[in-house]
Amino acid sequence: MVAAKTSKGGPFEEEEFLELRRLHTEGKGRNEIATLMQRSPRTISVYAQQLGLAFDRTATAVATEARKVDAKARRAAIIERAYGRVEKLLDHLDAAERGGFPFTTSTVNGIETERLDHVPGQEEKALAGAITQYLNQAVKLEQLDGDPGVEAARSMLGSLAEGLNKLAGLDGGGDDSEEG
Fold first, then answer.
1. How far is CA 46 from the centre of its chain?
2. Residue 134 CB coordination number (10 Å)
3. pTM of the model
4. Which of these, 53, 15, 16, 11, lies nearest to 37 by C-alpha position?
5. How far from 119 is each of 64, 75, 166, CA to CA, in Å?
6. What is the per-residue pLDDT across 136-177, written as a single tens digit (0 to 9) for each?
């Protein structure tokens, strides 16, 4: 059975300074040198700095940039899903206009579902709230990436909010009829 390597402790010995300089000259990275010398990466950084040695951070910069690109793609997928969910909820609300809003309730006969030609107030309020939340989150995610579509989304949000308010009878309570 092979024993696991353990990190050495204490200050660098003269031969370790030479070894560090040699490994650095060979182009090895800090973590690889730390493994080879059985020292912590932090210790290698400290002594490399004392020797005036710097490590190439190109790989780190590339990896960081790749993570940023991946995160942006993930946010874009989430945004797309949020907009898809909003569309489904709006379709659900529109079903009432076709006499097809499913309304489930408990009755003396058990749980029954019927199709309504209107959306009950509580359901409309819940759906409108969910739509607003999805849209707000989508816009916030778009703003993170400075997406040029943000202004269009804000305009769409405003239009949707106005439409939802009218649907819910929250458009100021004014009566559009000419009666008085």
1. 36
2. 20
3. 0.50
4. 16
5. 49, 33, 13
6. 999 998 888 875 565 666 677 777 777 777 777 665 555 554
In order of 24, 27, 48, 63, the CA distances from 38 in angstroms are: 15, 18, 15, 25
Residue ranges per structural domain of the chain: 14-56, 61-167
Residue 113's DSSP bridge partners are 104
CB-based contact 36:28 (threshold 8 Å): yes
CA-to-CA distance for 20 and 13, rounded, in angstroms? 11
Over residues 72-97, the pLDDT tens digits come to 999 999 999 999 999 998 888 888 77
Q: Of 128, 125, 152, 129, nearest to 139 (Cα)? A: 152
What are the C-alpha distances in Å from 163 to residues 40, 47, 102, 133, 171? 61, 66, 21, 16, 9
CA angle 35, 45, 24 (to 5 degrees): 65
Count of Cβ atoms closer than 10 Å to residue 127 Cβ = 18
Token digits of residue 161 = 């909010």
Q: Which residues pair with 104 in a beta bridge?
A: 113
Report the mean per-residue pLDDT for the chain: 82
